[in-house]
Amino acid sequence: MNPARDYIPWFDWPVEFEWGLMKTGQVLGIVILLLLTLAFILLFDRKVWAAVQLRKGPNVVGPFGLLQSFADFFKFVFKEIVIPAGANKTVFILAPLITFVLAFVGWAVIPWSSGVVIADLNVGILYLFAISSLGVYGIIIGGWASNSKYPFLGGLRSAAQMVSYEVSIGFVIITVLLLVGSLNLGDIVENQRDGIWMWHGFRLLNFAEFPDNLLVGITMYAMLVVFFVSALAETNRPPFDLPEAESELVAGYQVEYSSTPYLLFMIGEYLNIVLMCAMTSIMFLGGWHLPWGAVDDPWLGFVILYGKIWFVFFLFAMVKAIVPRYRYDQLMRLGWKIFLPTSLVAVAAIGYYVTFLAPPASAALAGG
What we know:
The protein is built from 13 helices and no strands. It has helices spanning about 5, 15-50, 70-80, 90-105, 125-145, 150-180, 185-190, 215-235, 245-250, 260-285, 300-320, 330-355, 360-365. Helix 6 (about 150-180) packs parallel to helix 12 and helix 10 (about 260-285) crosses helix 11.
């Protein structure tokens, strides 16, 4: 045995272990960032609503009320967990855990900047489709396991609503995929790197391709609006908060939940809201790029995308404050009779543009 040759320092870890350690650090960093973002974005939501109604909002706990969300967090954590006597206890506890875990898992493929992503999947969009489709199970199971009519009705309402608007969201995403020619979220952002006139939501500003860009410009702007409204319905945000409308259903599927299980439902719901804000920014608003050009610096790109997420959430908060709640029949009519046909026509229009009107470079990029 040759000590000089066979000696391995204690810090000479296998490559697989170092890779796993690095990915674990990335996951922990993203989780901490998301939890802190939720704390302040919830306060921001309440402040915007209060400002529209000409009142203060949370302003007692901490400077300007900045610690209000943390106080609410500890209140939920330390309260007693109450499980109804007739509930299926195992499934009752499992439902919020499913919602909580799936809400975090979806962020694995979200690129925060150039090369800054936990899992750079070539089928990132399909991955998000799968995770969002599974997310409805936590709500259905929670409503059923409570063994009460009110949460069960709220769970069914939520399932019908989420499934209805997932269809239109899917077709909207197909229009973006036709333009880009890739299922990778990073590629979708890089396709918009040349400025706001190439952002998918603002292609009307691309005067260099006028008048051929009229078709794609008008269509993609309409798809931005459809995606935004569908995201509100998908995440149960007002004016589509029918599954948990307090005036109608006594908080819907969550009515029997308290303490930490209720907190897990709320964290999952708000994480899905922020995920939709991120998807809107990535697919239609240029991702981490600036309106006047590309950004290749990872840190600057991260700050830009993070700012766009907050801006889209501000729009979510304003809709909550100023738009009255829809009736359930109006909600279903909007999803199935307006958004679904509109998005189908948009898919055909973008397919025609990519095949016959797009410049050669764009057609080659999109597989045309």
